[in-house]
Amino acid sequence: MTPEEFRSAGHQLIDWIADYRSNLEQRPVRAQIEPGDIRRALAQTPPESPIGAEKLLAELEQKIVPGITQVQHPMHYGWFPSNASLASTLGDIASSGLGCLGISWESCPALTELEEVMCDWMRQLTGLSQNWEGCIQDTASTSCLTALLIARERASDYSENRGGLQAEDKPLIVYTTEEAHSSVVKAALLAGFGRNNLRMVSISADTRAMSAAALAQQIEADFAAGNLPCAIVASVGSTGVTAFDPIAEIVEIAAEHMIWVHVDAAMAGSAMLLPECRHLWDGVEQADSIAWNPHKWMGTILDCSLFYVRDVQHLVRVMSTNPSYLRSTVDEEVTQYRDWGIPLGRRFRALKLWYHLGIDGIDAIRARLRRDLENAQWFAQQVAATENWQVLAPVKLQTVCIRHQPPGLDGEALDRHTLAWVNTINQSGKAFMSPSQLDDRWMVRVSIGVEATTRAHLENLWQLIQTQANEVAGG
Ligand SMILES: *Cc1c(COP(=O)(O)O)cnc(C)c1O
After folding, report:
1. Whose CA is nearest to atom 5 of ligand 1?
2. Ligand 1 closest atom vs CA 296
3. Average pLDDT over residues 410-431
4. Per CATH, the architecture of 3-68 is what?
5. Could you tell me the strand order of the sheet in which 76-77 lies?
6. How many CB atoms within 10 Å of residue 321?
7. Which atom of ligand 1 is nearest to the CA of 139?
8. Could you tell me the fold of the domain covering 93-359?
């Protein structure tokens, strides 16, 4: 493809995307297909001659789009808001168009230095002190794995340079709660701690936040048993019910024993753009690492996960390799992001943050987040004020956990009822919510915060939910 051919096909594609985004609401939210449908619609052998941009665009529309669950749809309330603002999409396209290679400062100085500046802008916008330095990782899962790797190396005095974790005489222990995201357990297992050394600290029954007293007790018990407490992964806005672990108390306990504290704020980090929400992570300044995803609620298109540490030297000491072919004459003066995480090559991700902030602007982003907070409060009030409906957890941000409990229904019959009404709505394509288990009973998470969702959409949703639940209960 020549640049001239690119220009013409590119204009067509951008026009198509603009139309697609404007008309999204007419499409079903959940993909209306069965497993295998998309695969079967595609040619089973590679094309022998080129298909051409025009025909591909038609196939994109006919064969691919039906297989997309529309998370940008205003009636999408599943999982978490995964906003892909158009401003940030332009930055992502710029990144692709420039075709940079980020393997060292020298391979693209602008990639490194814009990333430094963007991480610092985001630090300022979330009210963090200058003690933090950040980089952009692909996901919060990667950030958490990186955090646990460097925690492991700090606690073991750099066991990687000896026999690794396999040669340590004391088991290293990681603490989190059952409310934490599944990526936390995954990271702990992949980092070699072993399931036996992963402690699920008790949570408080109503807030589902980690109990600081239980944490302190568990740590004492581990010391007494000859184990080495290593890291605590604290949730700031857990996935299930948006629980907030008490960071101030946790960092105090951790400081006594030099235990690493990683703050997983993947979803709720966006709220820290609002000064009025920052009390939710009080104490965060004393943590060791923080991860949050602008690619969720804030709306900088995936993948964009910010990872901050206070001790960059330690991070680099664990993560760096310095092969001769990657060295240059300016190494002493520059940042080498390959030494801040696992991958060597990186994309020019900072461009999408730069575009997002530069085109939408922080004021508009903050106004939208506040709109979503108000919408969540409004929605929770409607549910709480209606007979036989419950809001099951405090609504700290934009997620509302609800259940319909008609008289006489409980236990497994209640589970069947909940799943029946939510799955019927989800399969209809009219709206999408995530059923989720709370204390082994099904409930429904209504995660508000898609850029296109207005109060009117929520009014529709509440009508739809009540009608469907009553219909299922009556039938
Ligand atoms: C979404 C989420 C994650 C995982 O994020 P990825 O970037 O998809 O890895 C981890 N923790 C919490 C609290 C989340 O909300």
Report:
1. 140
2. 1
3. 96
4. Up-down Bundle (1.20)
5. 76-77, 432-438, 441-447, 399-404, 389-391
6. 8
7. 7
8. Aspartate Aminotransferase; domain 2 (3.40.640)
144: Cα within 13 Å, side-chain hemisphere: 27
* Segment (H or E) for 443: strand 441-447
Show the ligand 1 pocket: residues with CB < 6 angstroms. 80, 139-141, 181, 183, 235, 237-239, 264, 266-267, 293, 305
CB-CB contact of 240 with 232 (8 Å): no
pTM of the model: 0.96
Residue-wise pLDDT for 131-167, tens only, equals 999 999 999 999 999 999 999 999 999 999 999 999 9
Kindly state the average pLDDT of the residues 453-457. Answer: 98
Q: What number does the ligand 1 atom closest to the CA of 267 have?
A: 15
SS3 222: helix
CA distances from 99 to 3, 107, 349 (A): 13, 11, 12
Q: Write down the CATH number for the domain with range 364-474.
A: 3.90.1150.170
Asked whether 178 and 209 are in contact (CB, 8 A), the reply is no
Residue ranges covered by each domain of the chain: 3-68, 93-359, 364-474
Q: What is the pLDDT of residue 475?
A: 66
Task: Give the N- to C-terminal CA distance of the chain in Å, as an integer.
Answer: 59
